[in-house]
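Comment thread on ticket #2218

A.B. wrote:
> Attaching the input chain for the structure job we discussed in standup.
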Amino acid sequence: MITLNKILPLNVWNEKKHLTKIELDAEKKNFNVNFRKDSGLYKGYKAIDLRTGEEILDIRFYCPTGRANYCAMWIYSDMFSSRGTGRACGYGYNRESAAFNEAICNCGIQGFPCFSGSGCNDWAIKILLKILGVKKYKIVEFYA
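C.D. wrote:
> Ran it. Output below, let me know if you need it in another format.
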């Protein structure tokens, strides 16, 4: 387990920064292969470290039936490698970001600022890259 102290926003709704304890524990990862609904893939993100040219994050969103959103993500970092999945269903909030927030937790990342249901996936990716220590990066959004 890796414990980091980072200056991060409290959450997506309150950008006031404070010292946050982040725990990275790949042993706590939870990857449900049933959440990979490749026929329902509609969008995703890749984050590339511009220093090395390596892919750091692979995040994919699925919505095969329209009733639930799924997220599968992989982290490929020298400091921390893991994978996790998330699921969100219902109405009245952004299911995509809720599934993404759950996938981050299921990667074994504890203490991540809340953004569930906000739709602020770009914000969350930038915070993840800051936690992983990636300073120069490119985020690529793709659609299926």
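A.B. wrote:
> Thanks. Noting for the ticket: The beta strands are 2-11, 14-24, 41-49, 55-62, 68-76, 81-89, 109-110, 137-143.
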